[in-house]
Amino acid sequence: MAWELSLLHWFESIHTPVLDTIMKAITLLGNAGIFWILLTVAFLCFKQTRRCGLAMALSLVFSLIFTNIIIKPLVMRPRPFWIDPSFNLLVTAPTDFHFHQVIHQHLLPELLHV
After folding, report:
1. Which InterPro entries does this UniProt record tie to the protein (predicted)?
2. pTM for the model
């Protein structure tokens, strides 16, 4: 985890008011999967993208079940700012465990061949 902390401290060293505003907006889109949920709803609204929207919806449900309910409690990977409290967070600190979520973005749609 040492290299991760070094990388995160490097990212933290490039703070500017403009970048901070952009990163806050991007982070807020990721909260509770808002971006993915809105994108899924948009795909479900149109007949020509509905099949992909259904695959996306299934991916979100599987991601919620496997990542948030099963894997996070099993792995219990601490967030970097829990280990090194010197980080200056731009947003409210998440309280759950850290886990990179890729299943709803890549894995399940690939498995479904959408």
Report:
1. PAP2/HPO_sf
2. 0.63
